[in-house]
Q: What sequence folds into this?
């Protein structure tokens, strides 16, 4: 639900997201849904055993990796703390052909997604990044900032 605030033109966006750690902790998926967009985003961070190359410093961003219905099923399982079934469904549904950008840093992300998604990622990036390998379900309210 979008709530218009009286004090400014900002909107509050309700965000559901889940973290799945897979492939013996080498892959970290973040599935994000909002109440303002019809499609989910999936961020994938893969860690390499090769310390010489630090490819694990950035998230890859996918738009078409999951349908909205598939993402909702996975998030519902994570909300019910059924991580094993959520991981199984992710393996079944995930499609790699929807890559939007390979290194989802702030500048590239700003060019790759609408402002709403950019605001959402700015708000959840810290908790997602610093929770290390803790999978689970999370919700947040994000105030959409007017871009100029």
A:
């Amino acid at each position: 639900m979008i709530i218009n605030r009286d004090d400014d033109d900002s909107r509050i966006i309700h965000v559901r997201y889940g973290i799945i750690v897979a492939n013996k902790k080498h892959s970290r998926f973040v599935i994000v849904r909002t109440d303002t967009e019809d499609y989910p985003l999936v961020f994938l961070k893969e860690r390499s055993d090769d310390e010489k190359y630090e490819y694990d410093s950035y998230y890859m961003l996918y738009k078409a990796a999951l349908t909205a219905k598939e993402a909702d099923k996975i998030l519902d399982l994570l909300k019910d703390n059924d991580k094993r079934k959520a991981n199984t469904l992710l393996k079944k549904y995930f499609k790699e052909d929807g890559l939007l950008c390979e290194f989802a840093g702030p500048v590239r992300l700003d060019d790759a997604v609408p402002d709403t998604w950019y605001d959402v990622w700015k708000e959840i990036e810290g908790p997602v990044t610093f929770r290390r390998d803790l999978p689970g379900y999370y919700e947040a309210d994000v105030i959409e900032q007017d871009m100029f």
Observations:
- The CA atoms of residues 8 and 83 lie 39 Å apart.
- The chain has one domain: 3-144.
